[in-house]
Amino acid sequence: MATKDLSAYDMEKVPSAENMKFGIVVSEWNYEVTGALARGAVDTLKKHGAKDEHIVVKHVPGSFELTLGGQLFAENTDVDAILLLGCVIQGETRHFDFICQGVAQGATHLNMKFNLPVIFGVLTTDNQQQALDRAGGKHGNKGDEAAITAIKMVALQQGLENGE
Ligand code: DLZ
Hints:
Number of helices: 5
Order of helices and strands: EHEHEHEHEEH
Largest sheet: 4 strands, parallel
Shape: globular
Distance between the termini: 22 Å
Strand order of the largest sheet: 2-1-3-4
Strand content: 15-25%
Helix content: 40-55%
Number of domains: 1
CATH superfamily: Lumazine/riboflavin synthase
Bound molecules: ligand DLZ
């Protein structure tokens, strides 16, 4: 599978998600984009065997809040992986930089703190068209890719923890 664009992935190389549990945190900012990311992620998890009742989706106001949303999943549920889905579009101020930096560092921190795959599914684009192109448009759907990454990381973790 090319890691450049997971949207055209080889399904046979993706482990089964049949016994995996997922929490998805979706930012409401730029919801036309993030809603499409979430639909892609859910569809992809299900396509690989995840059960409906093992996929929980929660919303937060903006991408900056994704980290806390992820932490709440980690602390209060038994999910195997958490997907953080957002879309930050460059504006006229430096807000973009602070939000992107905050959520990227937040996601990294959660991975380490909880020893749990926390997937960074945040689009950081110059404009809305670039975001739409990556949320089911000409560059695929990064929500699908976040789902595949989550499945692979859970399989890696379970395999290593079981001595495989
Ligand atoms: C304030 C803000 C701005 C300007 N832009 C975005 C954006 O493009 N994408 C996004 O997800 N959120 C944005 N926000 C909201 C922040 O993420 C956050 O919700 C607020 O700063 C409150 O903490």
